[in-house]
Amino acid sequence: MQNPLEITFHDMHQNATIETIIQEKFEKIKTISPDVTKCHVSLEKLSKHHQSGNTSCARLDLKVPHFEDIFINEKCVEGEGPLITAVNKIFKRGQILLREEIKRRQDSHRVARPGKYSVEEKIEEDDEDFDLT
C-alpha cells in the first residue's frame, strides 16, 4: 500500500507539530515491520462543553498482515503538550506489541534441530553392536 498512514482530528484544530511527530513515529514502526497495511491515528476532543479540564483521546489502529490488529487508546488533558505525550505513549505501546507479536511468530516457527544422526540411523547402528548370533 502506498501510504497507509491516516491522521484525523475530531473536534480539534489540526496541529502541524503533532502531525510531524506522528509521521516520525510511523517511520519507526515501519522499520520494525515494513509491511504495515494500515496505521490510523485519531485525535479527538471528548468533552466539548466544559470551560476547563477538557479531555482528549489519542487512538492508534495498526494493522499488519497475518498479525493480530493493534488498538491502543490514551486519554489526556486537552492541550498540545499532553497530546504529544499521549501520542508518544500509544506509539511506544504499539512498538512493544508489534515486537512481541514478531517474537511470538518467530518462536512458533522454530523447529528443533535433529542431532548428528536421525532416530532410524541410530537404531540400526545399535542393532549392529548387539549381534545375537
Strand proportion, as a percent range, falls in: 15-25%
> What is the H/E order?
EHEEEHH
Sequence of strands across the biggest β-sheet: 1-2-3-4
User: Tell me about the biggest sheet?
Assistant: 4 strands, mixed
CATH superfamily (homologous) name: Ribosome hibernation promotion factor-like
CATH class: Alpha Beta
Number of domains: 1
Shape: elongated
Keywords:
Double Stranded RNA Binding Domain; 4-stranded mixed beta sheet; 4 strands; 133 residues; 23% strand; elongated; alpha+beta
Walk me through the structure.
It is a single chain. With 133 residues, the protein is α+β, with helices and mostly antiparallel strands. The chain has a single domain (5-129), classed as Double Stranded RNA Binding Domain (2-Layer Sandwich), CATH 3.30.160. It is built from three helices and four strands, in the order E-H-E-E-E-H-H. The chain has helices at residues 16-32, 80-109, 119-129; strands spanning 5-10, 38-45, 55-63, 70-77. A four-stranded mixed beta sheet has the order 1-2-3-4, covered by helices on one side. Helix 1 (16-32) packs parallel to helix 2 (80-109). The longest helix is centred in the C-terminal third of the chain and has 30 residues, at 80-109. The model has no long low-confidence stretch (mean pLDDT 81).
